[in-house]
TrEMBL record:
Domain of life: Bacteria
Keywords: Membrane, Transmembrane, Transmembrane helix
Organism: Hymenobacter cellulosivorans
Protein name per its UniProtKB record: Cytochrome B
Transmembrane annotation, as ranges: 6-25, 46-64, 84-108, 120-140
Length: 151
């Protein structure tokens, strides 16, 4: 089960990033180009948040079944940067990123004007993307290096 969760979570990372980048492109294009907020824009806003929530749930399932996180809870993590990263930093930063994304999605849905919808979506989604970029265990990360795809 752990390896299946790990694979799904690894692949889900790309779904979140792609949907978030699509949402950002549409948001900035609409905001700066003064376009109308269409049903497609709303669908991208909605599905970006939905995909991110699914990834967060996969992440929580992985968190509670991970031997690395179990090791973090059972010993002093100061001496194991990988355990500290996954046991604390990754889960907190990603949870915060999804909260930011969710707030931005909800606020954008409720704005009155098209410009305000796009602006809200652009700013909150950008903040979420920055948090996500900081918390992903990239192959070049000094905190916890992981490959782009886990098989």
């Amino acid at each position: 089960m752990y390896s299946t969760l790990l694979l799904l979570h690894s692949l889900g990372r790309w779904a979140v990033l792609l949907s978030l980048l699509l949402g950002l492109v549409r948001a900035y294009r609409g905001w700066l180009g003064r376009h109308s907020f269409t049903g497609s824009d709303n669908a991208v806003r909605h599905w970006t948040a939905t995909i991110a929530h699914g990834q967060l749930m996969l992440g929580y399932a992985l968190y509670f079944s991970s031997p690395l996180v179990r090791a973090f809870r059972l010993r002093d993590a100061e001496h194991d940067p990988g355990a500290l990263f996954f046991g604390l930093q990754h889960v907190l930063a990603m949870t915060l990123a999804i909260v930011v994304l969710t707030i931005g999605s909800a606020l954008a849905k409720r704005r009155e004007t098209d410009e305000a919808k796009f602006r809200t979506m652009a700013l909150w989604f950008t903040a979420a993307l920055l948090l996500i970029f900081l918390a992903i265990p990239w192959p070049f990360s000094p905190l916890a290096s992981r490959p782009y795809f886990r098989f």
